[in-house]
Design goal:
This protein has 293 residues and is α/β, with parallel strands linked by helices. It is built from ten helices and nine strands. The structure holds iron/sulfur cluster.
Amino acid sequence: MHFTGTVYRNPYWPTWPLLEITQGCTHNKCKFCTMYKDVPFKMSPMEWIEEDLKELKEMDPHAKTIQLLSANPLCMTYDKLAPILEMIKKYLPEIEVIYTQGRVSDLKNKTVEQLKSLKELGMSEISLGVESGDDWTLDRINKGYHAKDILEQCHKLEDAGVDYWMTFLNGVAGREYSREHAVHSAEIFSQCKPMLVGTGGLTLFPGTPLLEEAEHGEFEPLSEKEMLIELKTFVEHLTCDCTFITHHTVSGKNLTGPNLLARKDRIVAALDNEIKHGDMDALAAIRRNKRTL
Ligand code: SF4
């Protein structure tokens, strides 16, 4: 298999085979991310992709799902992406779900009709690293789009019938804008229909501009308790029904699972309990030991 750079496996479906069709990230400028810093963006040659598919066919001819790599294969135009999906079907005809990650802005180069066609070819689940629905925060972290883009592009996915996930990056606005980040993100996410909302807590990794800013006193990171308060505010304001998962900040504790709206009171109560009685030193220690997103 041609794995040439950073490989990020979706932690929630770890048995999916991976297929690298791009390397790196087209944006590579988010202030909290070093994941693909040294990996220039490239599309994999079709010969490599075909060789890998032949190998996957040998290993698991009945594969039902597959994850495309790397950061945002979704950036490819329809004309480049469709032949790859066709090739996946040729070698792995039982594939039911082709899952890919992407940026909100990757959807701009595709029409609803093209997204429908990609879905027919199997691309039925997309994870969007949205991070925030608050324009100030999106600018602050250099995300490269605004709330109106999130709404426009997510509505295209809904019109095309493609399922999608949205992520909320807990803590990324820092102390001053924490509440705006939580409330505005929930408001924007609630105007969409994601199948899943995932939240991760900000960890300041070495080499990130945000860590440098924190060291120079230009960014005030939240404490573990403040992260939980922000997460609670986000959940309280979230009104779209979906699966809800948390990682990096707190896991388990009645937080993760389907039917957010039916469980919302329990999630908020669990967060309240964690805010009042949780071991913040233990949470901080978990974060200190993290090496990557
Ligand atoms: S967070 Fe995602 S879009 Fe931003 S630089 Fe990292 S991989 Fe690229």
